[in-house]
Specification:
The structure is a single chain. The chain has six helices and 14 strands. It is α+β, with helices and mostly antiparallel strands. It has a single domain, classed as CNF1/YfiH-like putative cysteine hydrolases (4-Layer Sandwich). Strands 4-5-8-7-9-13 form a six-stranded mixed sheet. It has a five-stranded mixed sheet with strand order 1-2-14-6-3, covered by helices on one side.
Length: 258
């Protein structure tokens, strides 16, 4: 199983994180090969998750999964949440798109297949967060909301937070309709920086990476502490699932304190 890791987050010995790829795993077509989602009736998903847990040397019952619905809802995870959604999608945290925890040995996970997974680490207070941010979550500024909750609940200071913006559909491929473009313009004060009209495609394109980066900077996180994977899932279908490429599988991004 091949995993992607951020350089900045990899520098901390008390932290583990990952972004899974579709390389490795046991899923059969049309989910080939390392599908991490229980939403698509792939009988091999739990096997894939168990293999991931073995690679990370963390029991599967220490993972927490959420049922993502493109909200800006954020929940703080404690010991009582361990194992939620690991083997049963109905047991996942419902109607939620971001998680924060200060507990050691609990891996919080965001799923994706074009949407942006964002991982956060407060290196001073030892707090981690995992965020799922599609266009709906992005215009609701779920990434900024999550950082604000870290500040409010754990006294995190933005200058101590490191961020990884994971693989997702890039501005090269993220075509959107006029209706979505208008919503972006109405919701984001920096829409002129993240929305552009492509004369070749005759479509508006949305830069999810930059939009989430600007949210992080807006709340005070140092630019040098933000790493963008700069991997477009639609352009790299051999490595990542892409809903725009009609993939049914999903990859996952997780983070935990050792």
């Amino acid at each position: 199983m091949e995993l992607f890791r951020f350089k900045n987050l990899s520098e901390f010995n008390d932290l583990e994180h990952f972004v899974s790829t579709r390389k490795g795993g046991f899923s059969k077509p049309p989910f080939e090969f390392n599908n991490m989602s229980l939403e698509c009736n792939d009988i091999h998903t739990i096997i894939n998750r168990k293999e991931l847990s073995e690679i990370l040397n963390l029991p599967l019952e220490n993972f927490v999964y959420q049922y993502q619905t493109h909200t800006k809802n954020v929940i703080i995870i404690n010991q009582s949440h361990k194992g939620r959604g690991t083997t049963d999608i109905n047991d996942a945290l419902q109607d939620n798109d971001a998680m924060i925890t200060s507990e050691k040995q609990i891996c919080i996970v965001a799923m994706a297949a074009d949407c942006v997974p964002v991982l956060l680490f407060d290196s001073e207070n030892k707090i981690v967060a995992a965020i799922h941010s599609g266009w709906k979550g992005t215009i609701q500024e779920i990434t900024k909301t999550t950082v604000q909750k870290m500040i409010d609940e754990f006294n995190s200071k933005p200058e101590n937070i490191f961020a990884g913006i994971g693989p997702s559909i890039g501005k090269c491929c993220y075509e959107i309709g006029n209706e979505v473009a208008e919503k972006i313009k109405s919701k984001l004060e920096y829409s002129d920086k993240v929305l552009f009209f492509n004369n070749k495609t005759q479509k508006f394109h949305f830069d999810l990476w930059l939009a989430n980066k600007l949210q992080l900077e807006k709340i005070g996180i140092n630019t040098k502490n933000i790493e963008i994977a700069e991997i477009c899932t639609k352009c790299n279908q051999d490595f990542y699932y892409s809903a725009r490429n009609n993939d049914l599988g999903r990859f996952s991004a997780g983070i935990f304190l050792k």
